[in-house]
Amino acid sequence: MASNNNHRSIPDLNGTSHSHPTPKKPKLSSSSFITPSEIQSEFSHHDTAVARINNGSFGSCPSSIISAQHNWQLKYLRQPDHFYFNHLKPAILHSRSIIKNLVNANHIDEISIVDNATTAASIVLQHTAWCFREGTFQKDDVVIMLHYAYGSVKKSMEAYVTRAGGRVIEVPLPFPVSSNDEIITEFRKALEKGKSEGKKVRLAVIDHVTSMPCVVIPVKELIQICREEGVEKVFVDAAHAIGCTDVDMQEIGADFYTSNLHKWFFCPPSIAFLYNRKNPKNDAGGSGDLHHPVVSHEYGNGLAVESAWIGTRDYSAQLVVPNVLEFVNRFEGGIEGIKKRNHEAVVEMGDMLVKAWGTHLGSPSNMCASMVMVGLPTSLGVKSDSDALKLRTHLRDVFGVEVPIYYRPPRDGEVEPVTGYARISHQVYNKVEDYYKFRDAVNQLVDNGFACTLLSN
Ligand SMILES: Cc1ncc(COP(=O)(O)O)c(C=O)c1O
């Protein structure tokens, strides 16, 4: 993470930096940290009937941030022209400068704010499509992605890469997984395959934290391999990363990197950043020609400026980043402390569940962040994706437990493999009782002789 200097550079509207004293992180004595009852009150809008152990899917937003967002919305509605001409651009710029410091980017121009990781992936892959169409890339040149890439990103590959003449190679990943080496080996094999027909590997799309099943990918090591093997560009889909795992642009070394702030950074839906490494020269697969897919009159003024105005809409989620920073700094250790405690708690809860059910975790604790895959008892009979969805719905409707379920097909020769895994999350509002509720629900299903075949479609 970026260190706190005494001064920060705040760019004006033209991007020129001016030095301002850095507001000191409030030095809270242990008694002034946010209290458990204040945390409860910040999330009192959550449905108390539900054990929400799925922060990963949609994140969460405290009520103080919802009020801050509402203030921005009122500011706009009170006098839209004044808001547009005097507030919007500087406020977005301020959010960008906070994100730049949080992720240790080199320059504010490297950070654009977009709606979500889905939009960021479209921006990067649309650029790849142009490279094919305009002849910078040749037919059948290769783009690599992980087999566990997020569904919408896979569709984007179809829409922007395959249709434009590119060849997509998927890296199969083992699950359950026991070491980074297993992932690195598969990645190397896929690169070899990509290069074996004399084709160029133009882009690698690598998740930082895969969605389903969830595993923290050794991105830094994979990017290093990409550099050694001549892969032109690397895009990291880190939809879950900020607030969940370490995010440092200098350390990771990607060309493009996106993370949502509405998942693990307490922003309201929806906001993500897209990092686009500043490149002195506009090379072939260059990063200087990215554009927002929604074209406005800002087209051609740089991705960050294009993204800051994609027509009339509600921009308030992008404007509360300073408030969120204040919110996380009420916790001991700020966002780093939150991340660390979430990790420790989710691993502890995962261990408690697998002990109760006689199963195992999907990865060792060093390969998970604030989410972990927990093996379900085999007697539940999760035998397809449809079973997994039905079981998830059943847990919600009958037991008030919200948790995504993953179906993992058995491999040849496996005897009684675990085929159902739950992805549990831990966020600051979670309590041990949420996980006990889940444990007891599953125990009750097992005791009652439940199997997914009993659920109708
Ligand atoms: C790895 C990954 N990529 C992309 C996304 C899409 O995020 P969003 O719906 O906010 O665009 C997700 C959502 O969970 C994800 O897990």
TrEMBL record:
Ranges for region Disordered = 1-32
List each copy of the Aminotransferase class V domain by range: 91-361
Q: What keywords sit in the KW lines?
A: Pyridoxal phosphate
Q: Which Gene3D superfamilies match?
A: Type I PLP-dependent aspartate aminotransferase-like (Major domain)
Residues that span the membrane, as ranges: none
Q: Which SUPFAM superfamilies match?
A: PLP-dependent transferases (SSF53383)
Q: Which Pfam families match?
A: Aminotran_5 (PF00266)
Record's protein name: Probable L-cysteine desulfhydrase, chloroplastic
